């Protein structure tokens, strides 16, 4: 295995620390719980979100009740419709040292 360059190691350490911070804040919070929190803060109904995301309102309801686990494509539509960014990151579970 090739040893990472110092700049790569610094970059990976930053990702690791940022990932840890996000995990601590959102640990155990599935998309189905986060979506309605953001949607309500925006004053948006399920129907309005569904229309903006071009998906069925029943799908929003099922996702929010955790009866449906959305695929990445559907999740991206919902997140975009709420004016948010979807960030998918590979974060090491342990320090790489």
What do you see in this structure?
This protein is an all-alpha fold. The protein is 60% helix and 0% strand. The protein is built from 5 helices and no strands. The chain has helices at 6-26, 31-41, 46-53, 57-64, 72-81. The radius of gyration is 17 Å and the shape is elongated. The model has no long low-confidence stretch (mean pLDDT 85).
Helical content band? 55-70%
The number of E-state strands comes to 0
What value does the average pLDDT take?
Answer: 85
Instruction: Tell me about the largest β-sheet.
Output: none
Strand-helix topology:
Blueprint (H helix, E strand, L loop, with lengths): L5 H21 L4 H11 L4 H8 L3 H8 L7 H10 L16
Summarize the structure.
With 97 residues, the protein is mainly alpha-helical.
What are its keywords?
elongated, single chain, 97 residues, mainly alpha, 5 helices
């Amino acid at each position: 295995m090739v040893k990472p360059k110092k700049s790569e190691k610094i970059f990976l350490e930053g990702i690791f620390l940022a990932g840890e911070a996000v995990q601590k804040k959102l640990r155990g919070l599935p998309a189905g719980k986060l979506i309605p929190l953001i949607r309500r803060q925006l004053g948006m109904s399920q129907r309005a979100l569904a229309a903006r995301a071009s998906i069925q309102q029943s799908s929003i309801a099922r996702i929010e009740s955790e009866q449906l686990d959305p695929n990445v494509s559907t999740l991206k539509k919902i997140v975009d419709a709420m004016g948010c960014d979807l960030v998918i990151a590979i974060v090491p579970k342990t320090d790489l040292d």
